[in-house]
Amino acid sequence: MANLFGQLFTFRPREDYSSIENFLTESFAYFLRRDKDVCEAFVARVLGRKIKIEGYDLETQRVERLPGRTRFPDLELMFRASSGETYAIISEHKWNSEIRPEQLADYQEILSSKDADHRHLVTIVAGANQQREAQLAPLTLPIDRTHLLWEDVYRVLKNLNKQDSLLGEFLEFMESHSLNPGRPIDSETMKAFLSSLDFKAQLTRFTNKLFYEHSWTIIPKRYLTKPEIRDRYGRVGIEFRTPGWNPTLVAGFLYDPRDHMVTLTRAESVDLFLRIEADATTNERIEEILALLSQKGKLLSTKGPRVLIRDEPGNDNRWTLLIVQQSLASVIKNSFEEREQIEAIYNRLYEWLNWLFEDPSVETSLSSLKPMKSATEPEAEAIAETS
According to a count of CB atoms within 10 Å of the terminal CB, is the N or C end of the chain lower? Predict the structure, then answer.
């Protein structure tokens, strides 16, 4: 049976990000309005303690006027507790857009004008990067703040154990868009990954969260024109392609090394990896580039990962100018929740990318590479046979 929220989401306007965020807000607000148990559970998560609500009023996109500007908070909740105390909560929601500190500052100002005993500013976002931005926003008014992820909201709703088919569909919708907490990766699953479709699905989920919920601006702009998440050549990764494939940068997970013609760093794991690839037939004589990458690679390899340059022993694929590999198990060994693991993986990739691009001479050298003989997508697919 088709999921109601999935169907409605398909027909939402898609001109900008606010439409999908508004859809998510209105869906969540629907359950807050219709069931006081849901509202009390959400308030408990925000305040860090249980509150018995006597009566409440909830509005979305309410018009709030400030000097010279108008704001429309995603959600405003006013309620009276059984103790007689009154509360005002403004909640700002993000999915695919960035946190704007000036917007949060305005919401603090709006909250300060509310007639309530307690005032609280909440942000609910999809990714850890957005959550950090909200936490670091320079807000000055003495108003309490709570910064949540949508997966926290998912937990609140799931833990209610409501026999509510519509709520169940909303939870399914959140799962289908990776807004729920996922399973962490464990060593036993990695050992069985060749026969585990679930594990490849986990790698894809992790890759999506890495791509959509974190910043990649450390990578030069020419690689960011059309990044894609692909599962091919024994890897699940983000492909940052330049228009002429000169070069392409790939960051992700290597689970079958045969096409890349390397070995995994540990037999019982998959590798986190970073690869620079370019057409070997049009870039036959690139000794200066390889020498520069080799010089930098020696420095990085002292920090733990294996670094191989083209034509070095262990790297038998001439399309690979550079490949950095490290056992995924070692990267996430001290992380036991999905969110912690994704942060550990991102931090390691960011460390490698910073190592690569902090020296401008590297990108200057790479920009001299020649494009593929034909960089059209159908012919680019032929790399599967040779890269």
Answer: N
Instruction: With beta carbons less than 8 A apart as the criterion, state whether 257 and 234 touch.
Output: yes
pTM given for the model:
0.63
311-343 pLDDT per residue, tens = 999 999 999 999 999 999 899 988 888 889 999
User: What pLDDT shows up at residue 334?
Assistant: 85
Query: Could you list the residue range(s) of the whole structural domain that residue 93 is in?
Result: 4-176
> Other C-beta atoms within 10 Å of 375: how many?
16
Please give the tally of structural domains in the chain: 2
**Residues 220, 108 within the same domain:** no
> Is residue 9's pLDDT more than 60?
no
pLDDT at 248: 94
Q: Cα 104–110–115 angle (5° rounding)?
A: 140
179 vs 209: CA distance, rounded Å: 10
pLDDT score at 14: 37
Of 116, 143, 176, the domain-final residue: 176
pLDDT of residue 95: 87
- CB-based burial label for 228 (10 Å; 0-12, 13-18, 19+): exposed
- Reference 85, options 49, 123, 34, 42; nearest CA is 49
Q: Can you tell me the distance from the alpha carbon of 111 to that of 73, in angstroms, rounded to the nearest whole number?
A: 11
75-81/69-71 β-pairing: unpaired
The residues that bridge with 77 in the sheet, in sequence order, are: 58, 89
